[in-house]
Amino acid sequence: MIAEDETVAVFGQFTYTSVYAKNTFTSPFSIKAKVQNGLISFFQFMEDTYASASSFRVGGEWIIQQDADPTKNFKVSA
Q: Degrees (nearest 5) of the Cα angle 68, 74, 78?
């Protein structure tokens, strides 16, 4: 945790397990917050949302489009 004036930053990692699929993943996270008069006035949470979403996957194939050019698409398989 780092703080300067009213801005606070927190860094760490957590491990989640999806309830039904039972897939577990560990993700880094960071939080940026601003505190004014003892209250949080701004809160931003960042995590690996791709890992979070993939923890619900139980099979099949994903086609990921990362660019306007569809030839750059790639597949993710189980």
A: 145
User: What is the percentage of the chain residues whose pLDDT exceeds 70?
Assistant: 99
- CATH assignment of the domain containing 49: 3.10.450.50
| Average pLDDT value over all residues in the chain | 92
pTM higher than 0.70, yes or no? no
**Residues 10, 7: Cα–Cα separation, whole Å:** 10
The structural domain count of the chain equals: 1
Its domain, for residue 48, covers: 2-77
